[in-house]
Design brief:
globular; alpha+beta; disordered N terminus; six-stranded antiparallel β-sheet
């Protein structure tokens, strides 16, 4: 019983008992953070949501920007390969520089943190914890996407060279009333950080340093059967694989070393919204507009909606933009399986019946005729890319639900590529976890 486990510090004995009892392990940690006065200069968008040129522009004139650690190619001439070994070495050099200069300072004691994000007047509250490498390796931390080895290796090099998780991963967990109450009590106090980023999203951060509260958070998480990777599959894999490497390389490994854990922000599933992830395609696979629309009628009820933007209004309803007009596509009965966690997904329906069957796009990961647009950009972005002539047709999907994501992860299935888009993204640089 987790409630009868050792309280306070998640010490070695407690951790090993937890492993044997097959329960979820999280622990507090000594976070490395910017001083309050510097947080807005240090904090950045995640490494994978912008390219080198955008990072260079955002960091211009700001030597304290985290981009110097997570996108260190900006400190080299334009065009330098971001995977050059000198670039990884520069990340470690800059990380040390930030600490030497007091731009990042380590907390003296193990703590948990609350990180909240506000978008469009709505706030979601996450707990910043160290999750266990063992829980990832044994599947208690569940995934819903495939990862690419080259992207894993890139992040593994970054973790190795810095000996730290510079950026957190984004987890969801089954909401729990007592945890909600604990977080509500914490956020009633003064936040450590409270600012609005240039993209208009609010970021709020509190430090939890009460020993009894820390102990209870650890115990509550121990009762969870699983947590779910919402965003950051490559970072999760990289962090866990490096931790696993380190324990295999350490002849004196006992299980209480920091490398057994990695940095995560965990949100209750009932606070998260997944937004749409849409598609644009360069051509109609040799078909005319009329032939393409006719082909769609085999599996969809097709209705012309005119020139005003049309947004999908329910599961199995799609929005199509072609030659200046919007269309509503509703999948016909029998073209999907609502009892199949993969077959129920609109991304599966559209991939099979439109992209593959009609447009000849077999592999969403590699086909150069297709691109993907996060719903945060709005459907106007789809119209723009088609009207410009860059793309021929756009397809907007109704967003996946958290329940669908959890069902897929629980059944051991994998979502098709480019299915989920979470927003707002976690701000990097608010807290870092060292592996030593």
């Amino acid at each position: 019983n987790a409630k009868n486990s050792q309280p306070l510090r998640v010490n070695k004995k407690y951790r090993l008992n937890n492993l044997n009892n097959n329960i979820m392990i999280v622990k507090p940690f000594k976070g490395i953070r910017p001083p309050k006065a510097l947080v807005e200069q240090v904090a950045s968008r995640p490494y994978d949501v912008l390219n080198s040129e955008e990072a260079r522009a955002e960091a211009e004139g700001n030597e304290k920007s985290l981009y110097h650690i997570i996108k260190p190619e900006i400190d080299f001439p334009v065009g330098t390969d971001e995977h050059d070994e000198r670039v990884y070495a520069k990340a470690a050099e800059n990380f040390q520089k930030f600490q030497d200069n007091g731009w990042l300072v380590q907390d003296a004691e193990d703590k948990y943190y609350v990180y909240a994000q506000t978008m469009n007047g709505r706030t979601q509250y996450g707990l910043v914890v160290c999750a266990a490498v063992e829980d990832y390796m044994t599947g208690k931390i569940k995934k819903h996407e495939l990862t690419r080895r080259d992207k894993e290796e890139d992040r593994m090099k970054h973790v190795r060279v810095n000996n730290a998780n510079i950026e957190p991963v984004f987890f969801a967990f089954p909401h729990q009333d007592e945890l909600d109450a604990i977080v509500s009590k914490v956020v009633a106090g003064e936040p450590e950080y409270d600012f609005v980023a240039p993209d208009g999203f609010g970021h709020h951060f509190w430090v939890i340093d009460d020993a009894a509260t820390i102990a209870r958070i650890t115990e509550i998480f121990a009762e969870f059967p699983a947590m779910y990777i919402a965003d950051g599959h490559h970072r999760s894999a990289a962090a866990a694989l490096v931790g696993d490497e380190k324990r295999k390389q350490n002849p004196n490994h006992v299980g209480d070393e920091e490398y057994n854990y990695f940095l995560a922000v965990c949100f209750p599933d009932n606070q998260l919204n997944i937004i749409d992830y849409n598609r644009v395609v360069k051509d109609l696979n040799g078909l005319s507009d009329e032939e393409f629309l006719k082909a769609l009628e085999a599996n969809f009820d097709v209705k012309e909606m005119g020139e005003e933007i049309y947004k999908p209004n329910a599961l199995h309803n799609f929005s199509l933009y072609l030659s200046g007009k919007w269309y509503s596509l509703t999948a016909k009965e029998g073209t999907y399986n609502d009892n199949d966690p993969i077959g129920v997904l609109d991304v599966t329906i559209s991939s099979n019946l439109i992209l593959d069957e009609i447009l000849g796009i077999k592999d969403l990961r590699s086909d150069k005729r297709i691109d993907f647009v996060g719903g945060i950009r709005g459907l106007g972005e789809l119209k723009k890319r088609v009207d410009s002539g860059e793309m021929k047709v756009a397809l907007a999907l109704y967003p996946v639900s958290m329940k669908q994501l959890i069902d897929i992860a629980d059944t051991g299935n994998i979502m098709p590529p480019k299915t989920t888009w979470f927003e707002p993204k976690l701000r990097s640089g608010l807290v870092i976890h060292k592996l030593v």
